[in-house]
């Protein structure tokens, strides 16, 4: 399907995720070029010039929006299996010094392909590792998004505080502060497109309080605001980070971010797990978004974000798979279920409904990325980013509520995934890249990263 064709999707259940929560048991969506031109119940008038797709047995939702990822981490999956965040990072940092243009392209293509196969049409990639001889790794992420057809928010990350200055990363992995700022501005110059239908936008993303200096945080915020781009960083992920911020800055992570000018409607934060009621209120009052990463937070035993409280305060909350080294699955559809389950473990059975979980993965994510007027819901005039899920197979047939089938069941197979009117997945297969070749390139690139010992597999625990 090309972006100029008129496509009529008929006979499907539709969850529009618009502000009124409009749903149709059976309806149609018409796409023209890169936009939705009709969403309505029942059958449309027959149009012989259009491609008509019989989507009966399917649920149409907005294409999913991934608000936090580290695509390069596809190269280092399955490591540090029993480690919490700081030990996990300490083990993985040395491996990441081997990143280069070629292996980043292989990892990012595979990561985005996996996201597409799980219903994702827009992805934010927080890329914060720029080895001295790695070449144009940011260019590789952009090239991968172009290949797969994913709308990309490239977060040009940075770290300038190595161990010599009290930070966590090794010196070999940090940039000089001015180089990091210059590299970030260069990424904005090269790749940022402010147009409403942009395929690529750039955000400014110094990594985390324990890997970045105050100066880089402050000057990154100034740079982003001068250039009119968004800001993103890791914050309030673990109790270790919380105590480290208190010890070092006499501030909680959110107080520290506030003092540095890092809260506002142009900021979204990854994780937001350890938030006091005052911090939740402050995030909501400032319009600061949170990328909730439930699987990664469970994998690293970081805790569970207070999503119920954030939503009650009307904060913007989206979903993120996080890097594949802390979420080897790498699919976004499954995070809908995971978000619902962990919210209920934390706050009870009322904590998150299926529809709220779908909202996080779509409209909430679009709000985090500042694109709520362009995408995140199926509405006339919005970009035609659509996921058409097959919910009549063994995994879902018989569940009368299709949104419950999507959220409570296994992530359903995709009949179609459309980004800006262009098909990325059809009948469960990628249409833009050859899956076998992507997997072969990934395997070859990952081989160079294989640990020389069974690092992090804790043989004693495995044998016990
Ligand atoms: N889950 C993750 N948290 C992080 N903090 C940090 O500084 N880097 C990371 C990361 O890669 N994943």
Layout of helices and strands:
Blueprint: E1 6-15, E2 23-32, E3 35-41, E4 51-54, E5 58-62, E6 64-66, H1 85-96, H2 101-117, E7 120-127, H3 137-148, E8 151-158, H4 177-191, E9 200-206, H5 214-227, E10 230-235, H6 239-249, H7 253-259, E11 267-271, H8 277-286, E12 289-292, H9 294-299, H10 307-312, E13 317-319, H11 333-347, H12 354-368, E14 386-390, H13 402-408, E15 414-419, E16 422-426, E17 429-430, H14 435-447, H15 459-463
Parallel strand pairs: 1-4, 1-5, 6-7, 7-8, 8-9, 9-10, 10-11, 11-12, 12-13
Antiparallel strand pairs: 1-2, 2-3, 5-14, 14-15, 15-16, 16-17
The ligand Nc1nc2[nH]c(O)nc2c(=O)[nH]1 binds next to helix 1.
Could you name the CATH class of the largest domain?
A: Alpha Beta
Share of helix, binned: 25-40%
By CATH, the superfamily of the largest domain comes out as: Metal-dependent hydrolases
Shape: globular
Q: On the 0-100 scale, what is the average pLDDT?
A: 96
Q: What can you see in these coordinates?
A:
With 464 residues, the chain is an alpha/beta fold. The chain folds into two domains: 111 residues, Urease, subunit C, domain 1, CATH 2.30.40.10; 305 residues, TIM Barrel (Alpha-Beta Barrel), CATH 3.20.20. It is built from 15 helices and 17 strands. The strands form two sheets. Strands 1, 2, 3, 4, 5, 14, 15, 16 and 17 form a nine-stranded mixed β-sheet that branches. β8, α4 and β9 form a beta-alpha-beta unit. The longest helix is centred in the first third of the chain and has 17 residues. The C terminus is likely disordered. Bound molecules: the ligand Nc1nc2[nH]c(O)nc2c(=O)[nH]1. Ligand LDV2AJBS binds next to α1.
